[in-house]
Design goal:
Layout lengths: L1 E4 L4 H13 L4 E4 L7 H11 L3 H4 L20 H10 L8 E3 L5 E3 L3 H13 L1
Parallel strand pairs: 1-2
Antiparallel strand pairs: 1-3, 3-4
């Protein structure tokens, strides 16, 4: 299992505590220090069943240039490129189980899906 975190994020710290409480073994990726590549973001988006603009934290200052960018196939690469350049834009935490099950682990229900998937793997 892998979890992408920002250590300053309370939801990330809660997710780590939850995983620790279940005894899960996981790898932490501090994605602000080790940003994902475009290919990695594509993989995560596919596993999440999301479009890139759905993964962007639009409340971030760095998202202002994206505000008027269309949310369609013609601008998909631009959205992904923005997240690669400014990984602070990426929703967090992102948790991926060994079988590829991936969630944005902001609540207990999402985290339980990856924990259950990990137990089945």
């Amino acid at each position: 299992m892998e979890i992408w975190i920002n250590p300053n994020c309370s939801k990330c710290r809660t997710a780590l505590s939850t995983l620790d409480a279940t005894g899960e073994v996981y790898v932490v990726r501090r994605y602000l220090e080790n940003p994902p590549t475009e290919a990695e973001l594509e993989e995560v988006l596919n596993r999440l069943g999301m479009e890139p603009w759905e993964l962007v934290r639009m409340s971030q200052e760095e998202a202002k240039p994206l505000a008027d960018l269309p949310r369609d196939a013609s601008t998909r690469r631009q959205w992904i490129g923005a997240m690669v350049r400014d990984p602070i834009l990426i929703q967090r935490p992102i948790v991926t189980a060994s079988d590829g099950t991936t969630v944005i682990g902001r609540d207990a229900e999402a985290l339980s899906r990856v924990v259950d998937a990990e137990k089945k793997a």
